[in-house]
Amino acid sequence: MSALAFLTLGAALGSGLIAGVFFAFSTFVMPALARLAPAQGVAAMQAINVAVLNRWFLGVFVGTAAACLLLGHRLADQVVTAGSTALFRGDAALSAGSDRRHGGLQRSAQRRAGERSAG
Predict the structure, then answer these.
(1) How far is CA 9 from CA 16, 35, 66, 77, 108, in A?
(2) What angle do CA 34, 39, 40 make, to 5 degrees?
(3) Alpha-carbon distance 85 to 102, whole Å?
(4) Structural domain boundaries, residue 96
(5) Which of 31, 51, 53, 52 is nearest to 41 (CA)?
(6) Could you say which residues of the chain have pLDDT below 70?
(7) What pLDDT score does 72 carry?
(8) Secondary structure of the chain in the HEC alphabet?
(9) Number of domains in the chain
(10) CA–CA separation, 35 vs 7, rounded Å?
Protein backbone atom coordinates (compact mmCIF):
# COMPACT_ATOMS: atom_id res chain seq x y z
CA MET A 1 0.00 0.00 0.00
CA SER A 2 1.43 3.36 -0.98
CA ALA A 3 1.83 6.19 1.50
CA LEU A 4 -0.86 8.20 -0.29
CA ALA A 5 -3.32 5.30 -0.15
CA PHE A 6 -2.53 4.75 3.55
CA LEU A 7 -3.03 8.46 4.29
CA THR A 8 -6.32 8.48 2.34
CA LEU A 9 -7.56 5.42 4.21
CA GLY A 10 -6.59 6.94 7.55
CA ALA A 11 -8.30 10.22 6.70
CA ALA A 12 -11.46 8.41 5.61
CA LEU A 13 -11.59 6.22 8.74
CA GLY A 14 -10.81 9.16 11.01
CA SER A 15 -13.48 11.28 9.32
CA GLY A 16 -15.99 8.49 9.86
CA LEU A 17 -15.10 8.23 13.54
CA ILE A 18 -15.32 11.98 14.07
CA ALA A 19 -18.63 12.08 12.15
CA GLY A 20 -19.93 9.40 14.52
CA VAL A 21 -18.91 11.48 17.52
CA PHE A 22 -20.64 14.56 16.08
CA PHE A 23 -23.73 12.52 15.24
CA ALA A 24 -23.94 11.05 18.74
CA PHE A 25 -23.39 14.43 20.33
CA SER A 26 -26.08 16.03 18.16
CA THR A 27 -28.71 13.32 18.47
CA PHE A 28 -28.64 12.34 22.12
CA VAL A 29 -26.03 14.21 24.19
CA MET A 30 -27.33 17.71 23.44
CA PRO A 31 -31.02 16.75 23.85
CA ALA A 32 -30.16 15.07 27.17
CA LEU A 33 -28.28 18.15 28.35
CA ALA A 34 -31.24 20.31 27.32
CA ARG A 35 -33.47 18.34 29.70
CA LEU A 36 -31.30 19.18 32.70
CA ALA A 37 -31.56 22.27 34.84
CA PRO A 38 -29.13 24.95 33.58
CA ALA A 39 -26.65 24.47 36.44
CA GLN A 40 -26.68 20.70 35.97
CA GLY A 41 -26.31 21.07 32.20
CA VAL A 42 -23.29 23.32 32.64
CA ALA A 43 -21.71 20.88 35.11
CA ALA A 44 -22.36 17.93 32.78
CA MET A 45 -20.92 19.77 29.78
CA GLN A 46 -17.84 20.74 31.78
CA ALA A 47 -17.38 17.09 32.76
CA ILE A 48 -17.67 16.10 29.08
CA ASN A 49 -15.10 18.75 28.14
CA VAL A 50 -12.64 17.31 30.68
CA ALA A 51 -13.28 13.68 29.66
CA VAL A 52 -12.85 14.37 25.93
CA LEU A 53 -9.29 15.59 26.43
CA ASN A 54 -7.64 12.20 26.16
CA ARG A 55 -5.05 10.75 23.82
CA TRP A 56 -7.51 8.58 21.87
CA PHE A 57 -9.96 11.31 20.96
CA LEU A 58 -7.35 14.00 20.38
CA GLY A 59 -5.19 11.60 18.37
CA VAL A 60 -8.04 10.79 16.00
CA PHE A 61 -9.32 14.37 15.91
CA VAL A 62 -5.97 16.07 15.27
CA GLY A 63 -4.62 13.19 13.19
CA THR A 64 -7.62 13.27 10.88
CA ALA A 65 -7.37 17.03 10.47
CA ALA A 66 -3.65 16.75 9.69
CA ALA A 67 -4.24 13.90 7.22
CA CYS A 68 -6.98 15.89 5.46
CA LEU A 69 -4.74 18.96 5.26
CA LEU A 70 -1.88 16.89 3.84
CA LEU A 71 -4.21 15.30 1.30
CA GLY A 72 -5.64 18.69 0.37
CA HIS A 73 -2.13 20.06 -0.12
CA ARG A 74 -1.14 17.01 -2.15
CA LEU A 75 -4.26 17.31 -4.30
CA ALA A 76 -3.66 21.01 -4.88
CA ASP A 77 -0.18 20.18 -6.19
CA GLN A 78 -1.45 17.55 -8.60
CA VAL A 79 -3.05 18.03 -11.95
CA VAL A 80 -6.74 18.48 -11.24
CA THR A 81 -8.76 15.44 -12.22
CA ALA A 82 -12.37 14.54 -11.57
CA GLY A 83 -11.43 12.31 -8.62
CA SER A 84 -9.10 14.78 -6.91
CA THR A 85 -11.61 17.59 -7.35
CA ALA A 86 -14.29 15.51 -5.63
CA LEU A 87 -11.95 14.66 -2.75
CA PHE A 88 -10.96 18.30 -2.34
CA ARG A 89 -14.59 19.46 -2.35
CA GLY A 90 -15.49 16.79 0.22
CA ASP A 91 -12.63 17.87 2.46
CA ALA A 92 -13.68 21.53 2.22
CA ALA A 93 -17.35 20.70 2.86
CA LEU A 94 -16.52 18.61 5.93
CA SER A 95 -14.33 21.34 7.37
CA ALA A 96 -16.84 24.13 6.74
CA GLY A 97 -19.87 22.09 7.78
CA SER A 98 -18.47 21.00 11.12
CA ASP A 99 -17.70 24.61 12.08
CA ARG A 100 -21.21 25.80 11.22
CA ARG A 101 -22.90 22.81 12.87
CA HIS A 102 -21.04 23.30 16.14
CA GLY A 103 -22.02 26.99 16.31
CA GLY A 104 -25.65 26.09 15.59
CA LEU A 105 -25.67 23.53 18.40
CA GLN A 106 -24.29 26.07 20.84
CA ARG A 107 -26.92 28.67 19.90
CA SER A 108 -29.67 26.05 20.10
CA ALA A 109 -28.59 24.93 23.57
CA GLN A 110 -28.33 28.54 24.77
CA ARG A 111 -31.81 29.32 23.42
CA ARG A 112 -33.32 26.26 25.15
CA ALA A 113 -31.54 27.13 28.42
CA GLY A 114 -33.00 30.63 28.20
CA GLU A 115 -36.50 29.27 27.53
CA ARG A 116 -36.26 26.92 30.55
CA SER A 117 -35.11 29.66 32.90
CA ALA A 118 -37.80 32.06 31.63
CA GLY A 119 -40.60 29.48 31.80
Answers:
(1) 11, 39, 13, 20, 34
(2) 60
(3) 26
(4) 3-118
(5) 31
(6) 76-85, 87, 95-119
(7) 80
(8) CCHHHHHHHHHHHHHHHHHHHHHHHHHHHHHHHHCCCHHHHHHHHHHHHHHCCCHHHHHHHHHHHHHHHHHHHHHHHCCCCHHHHHHHHHHHHHHHHHHHHHHHHHHHHHHHHHHHHHC
(9) 1
(10) 41
